[in-house]
Amino acid sequence: MASSALNPPEYRKTFIVRVQRDAKPSVYPRHNHWYESTLRSISTASDSADATSGRVLHSYDNVFHGFAAELSAIEVEKVRSSPGVIAVLPEQVRHLHTTRSPEFLGLKTGNSAGLLKESDFGSDLVIGVIDTGIWPERESFNDRDLGPPPAKWRGKCVAGEKFPANLCNRKLIGARYFCSGYEASNGKMNETTEFRSPRDSDGHGTHTASIAAGRYVFPASTLGYARGVASGMAPKARLAAYKVCWNAGCYDSDILAAFDAAVADGVDVISLSVGGVVVPYYLDAIAIGAFSASDAGVFVSASAGNGGPGGLTVTNVAPWVTTVGAGTIDRDFPAVVKLGNGRKISGVSIYGGPALAHDKLYPLIYAGSEGSDGYSSSLCLDGSLDPNVVKGKIVLCDRGINSRAVKGEVVKKAGGVGMILANGVFDGEGLVADCHVLPATAVGAVAGDVIRKYIQSAEKSKSPAKATIIFRGTRLNVAPAPVVAAFSARGPNPETPEILKPDLIAPGLNILAAWPDNVGPSGIASDKRSTEFNILSGTSMACPHVSGLAALLKAAHPEWSPAAIRSALMTTAYSHDSRGETMLDESTGNASTVMDYGAGHVHPQKAMDPGLVYDISSYGYVDFLCSSNYTAKNIQVVTRKPAAVCRRRRAHIGNLNYPTLAAVFQQYGKHRLSTHFIRTVTNVGDPDSVYTVKIRAPAGVVVTVAPERLAFRRMGQKLNFLVRVRTEAMKLSPGSSVVRSGSISWSDGKRDVRSAVVVTLQQPL
Questions:
Q1: Cα–Cα distances in angstroms (integers) from residue 55 to residues 13, 86, 89, 186, 246, in the given order
Q2: One of 204, 557, 601, 603 is an active-site residue; which one?
Q3: Which of the chain's termini has less CB crowding within 10 Å, N or C?
Q4: Alpha carbon distance 740, 507 (integer Å)
């Protein structure tokens, strides 16, 4: 007893260990035996056999060679010094980046030609969705008129709780789940609230999977909103679900195991609507898994994150990942606030229950003026509202801390009849429609101030403030569209500012897609409503649009690499809206910039025939890492390539053959600033074609291109060109920067191959 008290159990955390592929001693028949033996030999626990049991959480063989295990601090150092070990990475926890979009993108089934027709709707392609699992019974995942899975498919349907293996079909051809990392950090899962199987208990994974590859379903709607036909981007593409996200998040060791399985199974596209803190690529499990997936020919798209509208918020920034931000489509769900003074204020909502009376005004209060703790009550946090004050009233709540739908639940529990949810200054004017549990609407920051002032003035005049909410249903052909969603994460790229991120944007606001039976549309536990479809917003919804489009492009052009597919999507993207003007930023109402939308908004039909592509091999990415001053060991962690790859003279970082060109100048007293970019384009258009360059230089920048004419004689031919950029330093305060953007376009008279040119001037501190 005394000995136990003096030697408490050591605190262990999960680590991911990368080993050299050929380092396994021959005495061990399998890598797993070697890993377990190594752990036993370095264990610091009192009973080493007991301590080792269950501590090898995952063994990786495809995108990564190594294992995940729970280790103490002392054991980490011992493992690091073990023969054959390249790196030991700490586990990170990631989080989710939470029908009309195919039509908005120009993908219509009636077209006799076009991307859907040319690709046979993606029927021989497999999209792997790494997310919260899937609800397989949804009509979006039916397999009518689909043939057997592609011959190359090696995956399987892993049975589990309420998920027998026969739930897979010719549409959902694979399903797996990974929870060892999650349970190592959180203890055994609560199986009354989560399924130990690929079945989705959250809704996010079902939603994203059906955006990427849902079948045509009619009629489709959420609580009567957005009625019509629902379909994914690649309606005949096959799906494989890899469940890695649980109640407490998505753990790196599980995500890496999903990448490992997906590549071994034979997916063509990986869709990942998950992200976390940006770290160097050699510490980033998503970047490491995605590199090996790309090396195997798998296109990886990932959500940019929902940290907008602030700068430097973009995540999943590795250049071998296609990083997707979010835009609006031409549909919204207006819900108008009518105040007692006659003023009407625009808002948005998805509310399908009994409405408030149009001809009656209800007492209106601001929650922040009523609670004992003004801060908690202003945000309508749980338990912060006094039922004696709230009962029978519409309550104005501020956005923040708890979820938007939960605020409505708090108001409803306190006896309120309705809620107005006001954006804060940081949220700006960007609005997200939610499936509320009571009559509610969301309004912008300016409107929130107007309503607060009305309440204050009404109190002073001794005539109580009153209001009602009028729900207008679904409105189509909203202009302008697209608009960059306020929440969409923005550049510059925090890890490599010379690589413009996000790469592009796709529909991500108020997107209708499939939803499980066991989760109410608001996503809160008390919501017992059931709906086959739900409307969600986030870069999580934008990412699978691009995943599905990538599958269609791969089906139409099987020879294209992941980099070629991304290039086609980026160089044909557009930055104008339905008015023909630069897309607006939803948060401010002003024009957006390349830091908001990257190359622009996806244009699927043009992407099918881009003319030229900027291709990148795995060795191109290795050169990029060499130019990033990574050590040989760090590069090996990411790429599995030997250290010798960096022996030749290093190019500058901007010479990665990326479809955008970004120069970052530090103004260390220099007056004249210049750099150059070397690019190689591959002809995927007409055999005999001539492209001439059009330059739109950023303000105050001189851009030259040599040669100005590229003459191709055959398909697949590659030609190089040189871009020189010159500018002059400008007066900036210490620590500040200025960004200027333009473009270069190669045109053959039929196609325009556009690349953004971005110049950033930074004044050091």
A1: 10, 20, 16, 14, 20
A2: 204
A3: N
A4: 26
pLDDT, average across residues 84-102: 81
Instruction: Verify whether residue 557 is a known catalytic residue.
Output: no
Q: Six-digit token pair at 579?
A: 């008015």
pLDDT given at position 357: 87
Which segments of 74-125 are extended strands (E)?
Answer: 85-90, 93-96
Tokens standing for residue 122: 């993606």
The residue that leads in pLDDT, 456 or 116, is 456
Whose CA is closest to 461, among 340, 336, 337, 338?
A: 340
Q: Is residue 737 among the annotated active site residues? A: no
The catalytic residue among 58, 97, 131, 260 is: 131
Q: Report d(CA 24, CA 39) in Å as an integer.
A: 14
What sign has the CA pseudo-torsion 415, 418, 424, 430?
A: positive
Output the pLDDT for position 114.
55
Using alpha carbons, select from 663, 675, 671 the residue that is nearest to residue 731: 671
pLDDT of res. 38 = 86
- Can you tell me the distance from the alpha carbon of 216 to that of 247, in angstroms, rounded to the nearest whole number? 31
| Whether the bond into 707 is cis, omega within 30 of 0 | yes
Closest alpha carbon to 654 in 646, 643, 665: 665
Q: What is the mean pLDDT of residues 5-17?
A: 70
Token code pair at residue 720: 């190089």
Tokens of 431: 């609005």
The identity of residue 497, as a single letter, is P
Scan for tokens 């007692």, then name that residue: 340
| Length of the chain, in residues | 765
E strand spans, 211-266: 217-222, 225-230, 238-243, 245-246, 249-251
Q: Residue 25's pLDDT is what?
A: 84
pLDDT by residue (tens digit) across 265-305? 999 999 999 999 899 999 999 999 999 999 999 999 999 99
Predicted confidence at residue 112, as pLDDT, reads 46
Q: What is the pLDDT of residues 135-146, one digit of tens each?
A: 999 999 999 999
Measure the CA–CA gap between 183 and 172, rounded to whole angstroms: 27
Helices marked H in 461-496: none
Give pLDDT tens digits for 485-536: 999 999 999 999 999 999 999 999 999 999 999 999 998 989 999 999 999 9
What's the whole-model pTM score?
0.94
As a whole number of angstroms, the distance between CA 243 and CA 233 comes to: 21
Sheet bearing 672-683, strands edge to edge: 612-613, 672-683, 718-728, 701-706
DSSP string, 657-676: --SSEEEEEE-SS-SEEEEE
Of residues 294, 540, 592, 627, which has the active-site annotation?
A: 540
Determine whether 530 is an active site residue.
Answer: no
3-state secondary structure of 515: coil
